Amino acid sequence: MFIRKQNFPDSGNESLFLWGARQTGKSTLLKEMFPETLWFDLLLADVYERLLRNPTILRETVLVNPEIKAVVIDEIQRIPELLNEIHWLIANTHTRFIMSGSSPRKIVRSQTNLLGGRALRYELYPLVSAEIPDFDLLKALNHGLLPKHYLVAQPKRLLAAYIGNYLKDEIVSEAKIRNVNVFARFLEAAAFSNGEMVNYTNIAADCGVSAPTIKEYFQILEDTLIGRFVPVYQKRPKRRVIQAPKFYLFDVGIVNHLLKRGKVEYKSEAFGNAFEHFIYQELYAHRHYSGLDYTISYWRTASQLEVDFILGDHQIAIEVKASDHISDKHLRGLKAFMEEYKVKQAIVVCTEPLARLHNGINILPWQVFLQKLWAGELM
Questions:
Q1: Which of 22, 58, 175, 186 makes a 20 to 30 Å CA pair with 133?
Q2: pLDDT at 281 over 70
Q3: Please, are residues 152 and 158 in contact by the beta-carbon 8 Å criterion?
Q4: Beta strands 15-19; 96-101: pairing state
Q5: What percent of the chain has pLDDT over 90?
Q6: Is-contact 104 19, C-beta < 8 A?
């Protein structure tokens, strides 16, 4: 929990949004940090119906209780109209609002009052390795890192329920998707594209819809925090680089279930794909939790030279290899990138047992890499 709390202000006057996919632990975090605060949980039917019918109840409650200094509103996206009341209360009463939600899409798309910069934005992600005592890599790659899923012995039913109840029902409803069956097929296609360059035309052909529809579906996943694109690094390239972005779903366990991978075993092809995805999850969470907000991109040339992740403005180049013995054949992409750009560090994250330096490239066991990452020794 410390990783999540250290850059999340539990005191002060700043209002804020806390966004994160379902079951990442937003409510648990807020209850721990704001135990005495007035709560409005919009997942509760009676609370939701009352405020939906009359949003002014929020203002009236705060005004009649001047001792209230902070208010938590959970799942704020369910009633965007509340933001008008919140805006007025922040400006006129100096009340602090902590607003959480699983998707900012409905608020952003409805062009509702976004508080004019009066609220900071924070995000919560699945668990990271530094939060878990006795972290188990194979368990993470098989179960995923949503707290409930990682902690149980058999997460299959929980994963099925998450995909069915949330991804296929709630997101379909929120985005007003008419063809539910096509969207279900698209989710599987997105899982097959996980960690790969996105080809809208090919996925559209597989799903039987147009490429613009597939592009819109990917945007829905991004808007609802279920997936994100990794852009191409192309600053002053000497070589011709591929332009298509890569795409990752937000949790490796979700991908496993959509692909029906079965058990991910060490040294299998599925292990390699899941391992890279896991390292990306760690990097993406670190960039936000650390407050550094560095960019994450990838580099790939037309001649198939590739580096998995470029951090910042070519400060760090990272290749992820599920190998116990890194040889020169694994370093071709990094060496090519280092010929074009001056890097602070070039790193291979792998399953070798010991760290070593080879021709200016750090070969790091994944445990060492993650320890350095979360200790702030890389960026």
A1: 22
A2: yes
A3: yes
A4: parallel
A5: 73
A6: yes
